[in-house]
């Protein structure tokens, strides 16, 4: 017999520790959503109420929920092989997924290392860069450079790159050494000058520059010009510093093209992917590397990359990830993004004049606006969130930044409904 909603919440509050949640107020005041199922662009709670998924469930479900082809592929693979190690072992779907990834990746990234989430994809890239320089004549290169406001994951290595102070502060004394420079917000010339100066001053110590290409997600959907990315590639090449691009959020068409780096026409040394990689179905990720990086680990066995995860190349995840790529090809997902992107851009541009809105922006299937004082801990966006829930949309904000990042294949009428609910919710809060 199915548990009632109140039974689930009671068990939750007795034992469950939630991510990104102040647990004191949660335990005393919060009545959480209890999600029971999902289909397409909608979540359904235990009472049967539907909510449009305005952020693709933490940016992962780029093809919506329970896409029938993905479910079928998962069930089929589960009947044959659920897990095997990838240490000196291979299997069909890991091998073919690597081949298919390289085919759609920016040119010049022929090597694929699997892991299990976005944080570990970044962690892999950091360790590859550090070990490469350590064993190829430049062991002093052990610092990184990232942007203020950067977010690259939760593992301790990735935390070092973080420029969201509230996330990084508790661990600042134990993380890798990272230089932070101002983001390209409100004028990329000054921001690039800061980047260029930092790279020139510290090139001999830098293992890599790490960037979220074109959009800094957790910082509040900050969008910056592709020219900044082009110039970052140029300065890193000039000083022979690796460029790592974190495409965990921006990859798989979120900004329009398959990869956000395509806006700038550049190729990094390492690229990190997750989230859309399995369309939110299973935890799996990949780090793609240049041949130069790969060859830096050949030779003496001590030069090998002695690193991996239990579920590295997991057959279920690999089969699902291959099906995702097939859906992108056969259902022409990227071609469908243009219409949705134009509709989002028009809507957000129209809200720029609302009282209390301090800025609007959009790119691809992302639209964002700011309310009042900026910051992740600000509460203005949460008032819009609550209004959205009443009207049937899940619009979890980034503090004072309200945004949408729906599934790329959301139906036109559902996107219109989502944007309509957001407008009603904004007006209810602001007017």
What is the first-to-last residue Cα distance? 46 Å
Biggest sheet descriptor: 7 strands, mixed
Oligomer: single chain
Instruction: Trace the largest sheet across and list its strands.
Output: 4-12-11-10-7-5-6
Counted beta strands: 16
What's the helix count?
Answer: 15
Give the % helix.
25-40%
Structural class by helix and strand composition: alpha/beta
> Which word captures the global form?
globular
Average pLDDT works out at 95
Radius of gyration: 22 Å
User: Which regions contain 5 or more consecutive residues with pLDDT less than 50?
Assistant: none
Fraction in beta strands: 15-25%
Polypeptide structure, described:
By secondary structure, the chain is α/β, with parallel strands linked by helices. It has 15 helices and 16 strands. The chain has helices at residues 5-15, 23-29, 56-59, 68-78, 92-104, 118-135, 156-161, 165-168, 188-202, 226-238, 291-295, 315-330, 333-350, 380-391, 412-430, and strands at 35-39, 42-45, 50-53, 111-115, 143-147, 178-181, 206-211, 215-216, 222-223, 242-246, 270-273, 285-289, 357-363, 366-371, 393-394, 401-404. A 7-stranded mixed β-sheet has the order 4-12-11-10-7-5-6, sandwiched between helices. The chain has a 4-stranded mixed β-sheet with strand order 1-2-3-15. A hairpin with a 2-residue loop joins strand 13 and strand 14 (366-371). It starts with a helix and ends with a helix.
